Each structure stands twice: as C-alpha cells, then as structure tokens.
Amino acid sequence: MRHRHGYRKLGRTSSHRAALLKNLSISLIEHGKIETTVEKAKELRSYVEKLITVAGKNDSNAHKAVFAALQSKEATKKLVNEIAPKYVERAGGYTRIIRTRIRRGDATTMAFIELV
Predict the structure, then answer these.
(1) CB count, 10 Å around CB of 66?
(2) Residue 58 has what pLDDT?
C-alpha cells in the first residue's frame, strides 16, 4: 500500500527520477511554461516551489543551493535574479497546473505547468 508515501515514483529509478525533475525544472525556469503529464507536473510543482522559496532568500548560500539542485548556470541565474524576486511577498503557490488534453499514443492526461 502507498499510504502516506510522499512522492510518485514515475516508473523510474531514483537517479533517473532526480534527473527528470532537474531537467523539467530547468525547462520550466527557462521557458516559463511547459507541457508534460499531470503526474510529472504535480511532482515538478513540489520540486520547483521549494527551489523558488530557497532562491527568494537571495544570498550566496541560496545561490549555491539552487545551483546544486539544478546544475545549470543560466537557469540558476535566471531563477535567483529574475524569478524569485517576483515571489518574495507571495507565500507559496508559484506554479499553476492546467490540464490540456489526452495524449494520443497512450491516453495519458497532459497538462501545462507554468509559473504564475
């Protein structure tokens, strides 16, 4: 049973799941809006919102923590300098998930996840 489990496995190993979330979060930060499956979007929401909260502190330790999670200089710079300052006054809820369509190949529900 998966009661109170805490996260979705997404059918991947832990390292693959970590890489997936890292790559999705980099894409979301760079583009502001991406389309993915609903399950991935829900996991990504948690991951990205924690990063934005850390980046909002706007000190060197926050910068290092965000870079450690993303491993992308461009995405880190954009998150710390452009995105996080917009959400300093906001207490969470930095992303929005909008269900879009059912994917033709496997009939899974797709969704847009975007920064609010």
Answers:
(1) 22
(2) 87
